[in-house]
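Page 42, continued from yesterday. The earlier attempt failed because a stray header line got pasted into the input along with the sequence. Redoing it now with the clean sequence only.
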Amino acid sequence: MATSVRAAGDGSAPPAAPVRDRSAGPGSPSRRPPGHGGRRSTLHRLDLKAVPYVFVAPFFLTFAAFGLFPLIYTGWLSLHRVELGGEAQWKGMGNYSSLATSEFFWNALANTFTIGIISTVPQLLMALGLAHLLNYELRGRGFFRVAVLAPYATSIAAATLVFAQLFNTDYGLINTVLGWAGFAPVDWESSKWPAQIAISTIVTWRWTGYNALIYLAAMQAVPQDLYEAAALDGASRLRQFLSVTIPSIRPTILFTAVVSTIGATQLFGEPLLFGGSVGISGGSGNQFQTLSLLMYEKGWVTGALGQASAIAWVMLLLLLLIGGLRTLFSRLRAKEGS
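This time it went through. Structure tokens are written below.
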């Protein structure tokens, strides 16, 4: 007992109890199990790196299945002699060399080029004019903007069948009006240039409003200060359109020209339906047969899948050439601007 009293009264302090860190919660590092922080950091890094690829994976898988694989397989078929229901036989560049000496191929290529020119140039010019008019403050401007897009919403089959009746040689409205004006009836189906003009009319009617709305969107992005400055200098509306609007929307014009050219290269539905029973061959004398029609005829009428694949790859090379020319033109314009 004396010893206990002495220990308590000798003036020395009792040993201090260990201080507990109250700021350390249940999830503090001191209480985490070993390796927990490393696993969490690894999962976090994996989440940042892998999840974006998971989100974009469906697109790439779909593109690989329905875009890349058909493209590669078509290229493989173009190097073989393939008949429907038969086995492929290696032919090398034979399909391409036969196209180079085929009058049907060169005729289809020429028809594709002429129909593309006849349909694209008037289409874009009319679209520019429509967009310029719709850019002004007009009554019912919203209605007119929707109305110009109505032909684009119409199906190719419906539009082509209606125009086929209008251009009918015997009872069509076009020949009736020409007869009232004193002109002889035109054979719109059997003659080369009338048939191509009729098909180009269908394409122009269907795509003019679509391009007009694209031009309208570009025109509304042009700063109004440019028009005000041009008006102060005494420029008329026509001069403002030529000197202000056209240079400001030149990239959009180039874009629509390239897209319209690509569409003309792939033209298929309009000439097929316009020709009726002879639509696949592009008329009785192949007068409006395009590359797409020739490819379809080679593949599914004559059964020469190898030649059809070669035509498809020639069309792809033409489209790549058009895209390359567009890129080259854009770079040249950028150098001139700088």
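Notes: The radius of gyration is 35 Å.
Reminder to self: strip header lines before submitting.
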